Amino acid sequence: MSKSASSPEALLSRVEWTVLRRLDGLLQGDYRSIFKGQGTDLAEIREYQYGDDLRAMDWNVTARLDSPYVRRYDEDRDLTGWLLLDASPSMDFGSGHRRKRESLEELVAALAAILARRGNRVAALIYDGISDEFIPPASGRRQVLRILESLRSRPALDASPVTDLGGALVRAYKLMQRRSQVFVISDFLSASGWERPLSAIARRHDALAMYLFDEMERELPDVGILFMRDAETGEQRLVDTSERSFRKRFAEISRKQQAELRAALARSGVDSLELSCTDDIVEAVMRLARARKARRLLGSGAGSALGRSV
User: Fold this and answer.
1) Is pLDDT above 50 for 40?
2) Where are the alpha helices (DSSP H) in the chain?
3) What is the structure's pLDDT at 310?
């Protein structure tokens, strides 16, 4: 039976040929630039040195000796990757040739495939504002397909209660049994209260927030009168985009929201990467690899905004 062009198998095959093959050549196999395992065997306890990860601090020894000490573990290549995926109605928005949800699916296929092909386990928590779906950790190509199938098969929602990203993060935190590589992929159109659980995840795990957006969410073009619909609540409003003052106010509000989001992510102690629906996935992953590699060379200060210009 032939594969549908939109099937998870077709998507994964396309990503393997167009994304992973290019990454293999660019990264030359050094995927540790993006993924770094954390072993469970204690190698040593030593005095803190500039650039050490503060999450490795041994507070008991520090208090006893009145000097900062850190724990160092033998690195284990085997790790568990967690994908916390936003499938809320706002992810169905897209003003160009693809929606945020399609960018999400391609990004998930690439990240999950990179993890799985190195023998690591991958888990996922998919949330949409109504319900969550937990996919337990497993390895192999079949696990990648299972995650993509679950993401694809979720019913479309016309509207939902405001997405509770914080609640999803709390549930994910409780499910994570060992130190993991965590990817939170969302447009962050959510109720407030997600900073604290994200910070808790970042203290225990190597966490990265990937912020997906559409260019029209930042600046409106002049397309005359149109209906604008809140994808989360379903509320509609008639607006005149030909009014320059309206477009200017829209852009100002958008810039303020972006600044507030970046500040919130920094306070949470996570690296963050901004991705437009028009961004090339390979370039995005390479930007991520370069920034995280430089961060480890220069020190481990948390909460760096990798942005689109890195």
Assistant:
1) no
2) 8-15, 21-27, 59-65, 100-117, 141-153, 165-175, 195-204, 244-268, 281-298
3) 35
Nearest to 117 by CA among 139, 97, 133, 99: 139
How far apart, in Å, are the Cα atoms of 74 and each of 32, 44, 81, 129? 15, 9, 19, 40
Q: State the pTM of this model.
A: 0.78
Instruction: Find the range with the poorest average confidence among 84-88, 282-286, 292-296.
Output: 292-296
Other C-beta atoms closer than 10 Å to the C-beta of 215 total: 14
Half-sphere exposure of 31 (CA within 13 A, CB side): 23
- pLDDT surpassing 90 at residue 245: no
Tokens (6 digits) for 100: 């945020």
CATH number at residue 225: 3.40.50.410
Helix (H, G, I), strand (E, B) or coil at 43: strand
Q: Same domain for 93 and 187?
A: yes
Nearest CA among 234, 256, 251, 192 for reference residue 89: 234
Same domain, 123 and 173: yes
Q: Look at residue 295 in the predicted model and tell me its pLDDT.
A: 63
Helices 195-204 + 244-268 axis angle, to 10: 40
